[in-house]
Design brief:
19 strands; 5-stranded antiparallel sheet; alpha+beta; Uridine Diphospho-n-acetylenolpyruvylglucosamine Reductase, domain 1; Uridine Diphospho-n-acetylenolpyruvylglucosamine Reductase, domain 2; 336 residues; Uridine Diphospho-n-acetylenolpyruvylglucosamine Reductase, domain 3; 4-stranded mixed sheet; 8 helices; binds flavin-adenine dinucleotide; 3 domains
Length: 336
């Protein structure tokens, strides 16, 4: 096993930072060897995927790990929560690019992952983050998550329920943060058509797997900036949940306030609307800016530092709090 030193860290913000040590592994035994090494034991560490949801505030003075575990194979289900009449279980390595996995499922004619087309990143992080788009979340198709426990080096499988998935959350970002490394994920997909087209303008989409994938790719390419041109991490903030009484109070002052019912007590408010109302859409602070076509996205206009991006994020959070008494939280993981 080889540790590289002073290595640039991959990230979609286009910000230059380095890690003191960097190591990749292609299977579980190589990972266990790294976990047993002196360098790993003596330094802080972070496991990254493709860096599409990370903002490094400084160089990382520790070990950065990255999975090169590849492969998508059909397997037997490992969980008892199967519910499709005619289903298939696919096990994908944590290092597989998420969109390669989605493309594979569409080519094979398996239903369930297509709405999550073109989300950047890798399979391991998709489970950690519980990625979501167009009415579907990773949790809807994850059957089980295979991991290695960092302290013992032993393998452990988490069932879907044990992962405690919630909106952009999982046990791996919460109670068990920094304790497990995801090595592969098993997905449960349907061989018979099941479409989720009740989100936005998808209802007009033909009921055909490749057509749905193409439509979603087209919408995303029109709506979101290409991070290779304009550095960004997708939605910078999560959509906040507020209680009904708070919503009713705001509605009197802002009759067009959009909301999505969550349950009898709570509604979800689109953070993009709040940010736009605060006048931030298309506005800059230094070299960081709020994207002019989608207020939820913060972009690096060129040469932005992580501090400039954080300063803009702090200002937006304060303005939304001041105007609406709503706390919005970053979806992006700040490191350092
Ligand atoms: C243009 C753009 C559009 C986006 N659109 C969406 C969207 O529609 N929906 C959505 O949900 N997200 C979206 N995102 C955010 C991003 O794609 C997801 O958060 C994605 O899951 C990040 O994957 P990654 O491999 O880059 O992980 P990273 O950003 O590198 O890491 C994310 C987190 O996962 C942890 N992690 C990574 N790999 C492992 C592993 N093997 N074991 C344990 N922990 C691990 C990291 O420590 C970190 O906490 C978008 C991002 C961009 C740039």
């Amino acid at each position: 096993m080889i540790f590289q030193e002073n290595t640039p860290i991959a990230n979609t913000f286009g910000i230059n930072t380095q890690s003191r040590y960097f190591a990749e592994y292609k299977d579980i035994s190589e990972l266990q060897e790294i976990l047993n090494s002196d360098i790993f034991k003596k330094n802080k560490f972070l496991h990254i995927g493709a860096g599409s949801n990370l903002l490094f505030l400084s160089d990382f003075n520790g070990v950065i790990l990255h999975s090169k575990i590849q492969g998508i194979t059909e397997c037997r289900g490992v969980a008892s929560n199967a519910h499709y009449a005619d289903e298939v279980f696919l096990r994908a390595g944590a290092g597989v690019l998420w969109d390669d996995f989605v493309k594979y499922t569409v080519e094979m004619g398996f239903f369930g992952a297509e709405n999550l087309s073109l989300i950047p990143g890798e399979v391991g992080a998709a489970a950690v983050q519980n990625i979501g788009a167009y009415g579907v979340e990773a949790k809807d198709i994850i059957s089980a998550v295979e991991t290695v426990e960092i302290s013992s080096g032993e393998t452990r499988i988490f069932t879907n329920e044990e992962c405690r998935f919630a909106y952009r959350e999982s046990i791996f970002k919460d109670e068990e943060k920094g304790k497990y490394i995801v090595t592969s994920v098993t997905f449960r997909l349907s061989k018979t058509p099941i479409f989720r087209l009740d989100y936005g303008n998808l209802s007009e989409c033909p009921k055909d797997l490749p057509a749905i994938r193409e439509t979603i790719i087209k919408i995303r390419e029109e709506k979101l900036p290409d991070y290779k041109v304009l550095g960004n991490a997708g939605s910078f903030f999560k959509n906040p949940y507020i209680c009904i009484a708070h919503y009713e109070g705001l509605k009197k002052h802002y009759p067009t306030l959009p909301h999505y019912p969550v349950n009898d007590e709570v509604v979800k408010i689109p953070a993009a609307w709040l940010i736009e109302q605060c006048g931030w859409k298309g506005k800059s602070l230094g070299n960081a800016a709020v994207y002019d076509k989608q207020a939820l996205v913060i972009v690096n206009k060129g040469g932005a530092t992580a501090q400039e991006i954080k300063a803009l994020s702090d200002k937006i959070i304060a303005d939304v709090k001041g105007k609406f008494h709503i706390d919005i939280c970053p979806e992006v993981n700040f490191i350092g």
